[in-house]
Amino acid sequence: MAKKKNNELLLENEVKITDSEINLEESSKSKKQKIKISKETKKSIKVKKQKEKKNIKLTIKELPIKIVKEISKIKWSGWDNLKKKYIIVLLFMIFFAVLFFCIGLGIEALFKLIQAY
């Protein structure tokens, strides 16, 4: 009986192996076929960019140069430029203060006219 059981086990193993071989052959055939993807699908697919390894030593060496370049990009305001901007802001604030004061007086007069106040 032990021999029969061993033979049955061997046969079952052989069947399992052949099944897996069949699956491998089917998957290799499917890999050979080209899959057509629509343009819309291609647009919706997002590909992650692979990050490159950063060289820390090189980054530390280049840091002062990058800082100097960034500082040189800053445009420092002169006194004349600041005066002009300050005057423009003050005039803007005064204009809108007068405008809203007049609107408030108009709304108050309207409420008195319709006797809601």
From TrEMBL:
GO terms for molecular function: protein transmembrane transporter activity. The chain crosses the membrane at residues 86-107. Signal peptide: none annotated. Pfam families: SecE. Its main location: membrane. The keyword Oxidoreductase does not apply. InterPro entries: SecE_bac, SecE_sf, Translocase_SecE/Sec61-g. It is found in: Membrane. GO terms for cellular component: membrane. Keywords: Membrane, Protein transport, Translocation, Transmembrane, Transmembrane helix, Transport. It comes from the Bacteria. GO terms for biological process: intracellular protein transport; protein secretion; protein targeting. This is Preprotein translocase subunit SecE. It comes from Mesoplasma chauliocola.
